[in-house]
Amino acid sequence: MARHSGGRSWYGKLVGAALGVTLLAAGASVWTAQAGPTSDSPPKASAPATPRAVVKPVAISIAHASEAGARGVNITIDDGPDPVWTPQILDVLKEYGVKATFCMVGTQARAHPDLVKKVVAAGHRLCNHSVSHDTAMDKASEAYQKQQILDAERMITEASGGVRPVYYRAPGGAFTPYSRKLAASRGMRPLGWNVDTKDFERPGTAAIIATVERELPNGPTLLFHDAGGDRSQTVQALRKLLPRLKEQGHIYGYPVR
C-alpha cells in the first residue's frame, strides 16, 4: 500500500498553524491536516475512549478485503467530516443505498459533532484517521503515535455520542508495527486501500472514475475524500460510479474486521 503521493502539498496549504493537544483542548475548529509534533517531548495520550476491559481486540494485519465477499466494494471516505462536502456525500450514498466507512480526523470530528452523529445515524461505520493527519507519524516516537491514535479515538467517540471507530487508517498509510498493534488492541482494525482515486488532486470527475475502473481489479477498498479542499469532483464521481458498479454486479460492503 503506497503512501499518498502529493498528499502533503494540498494539506499543507490548508494548515493555519501547527496544532498540538493544547490547541485541541481549546476547541479550535480550523482544519489541522498535517500538524505534526509540536515539541521535543510528545504530549501524553489521554485516557482511551472506553475502558480496555470492554474492548475486543482485532487482527493487527492491514485489512483490504470486503465483508461482502469476492464481488464486494468498500467505499471509504477520508479526512472529514466537513460541513460542505460530508452532507453532499451522505446524500449521494443515501440515494443509491450504499453504506461507507468514514475515516475521520479527530480535530474535524470534534469541530463537527453534528456531522459525526449524522454519519452514524445513516448506518455508516467510523474509522480513526488520527488527531491531525500527520503523514510522518511512522517517523515519530511511539509516545506521539499513541497520542495521535488514542486522542482521536476519544474525540470521535465523544463526537458520535458514544459510537466508537472500528478501524484505524494511518494518514498517508504511515503505519508502524506499534501503531497497528495499539489500534488493534483497542478494537480498531488497521485499514488500507486498494484503489487510491487521487481525488484530492482534483484531476477531474472523468479521471477519478477511470482510475476506479482501471484499478478495481487490484482489490475492493476504494479511497475518496470529503475534506481538505473542493470535493465537488468526488461527489460527482460517486454519483456516477455507485450505480455503475452495482449494475456490473458489485456489492457494497464494509472492510473486514
From TrEMBL:
InterPro entries per record: Glyco_hydro/deAcase_b/a-brl, NODB_dom, Polysacc_deacetylase_ArnD
Record flagged with keyword Hydrolase: yes
This protein's record includes keyword DNA-binding: no
Alphabetical list of CDD domains matching this protein: CE4_NodB_like_6s_7s
All residue ranges annotated as the NodB homology domain in the record: 71-253
UniProt-listed PROSITE patterns: NODB (PS51677)
GO biological process: carbohydrate metabolic process
Keywords of the record: Hydrolase
Listed Gene3D superfamilies: Glycoside hydrolase/deacetylase (3.20.20.370)
Domain of life: Bacteria
Pfam families referenced in this protein's UniProt entry, alphabetically: Polysacc_deac_1 (PF01522)
TM regions (residue ranges): none
Gene Ontology terms, MF aspect: hydrolase activity, acting on carbon-nitrogen (but not peptide) bonds
PANTHER family reported for this sequence: 4-DEOXY-4-FORMAMIDO-L-ARABINOSE-PHOSPHOUNDECAPRENOL DEFORMYLASE ARND-RELATED, GLYCOSYL TRANSFERASE-RELATED
Protein name: Hydrolase
Organism this protein belongs to: Streptomyces gardneri
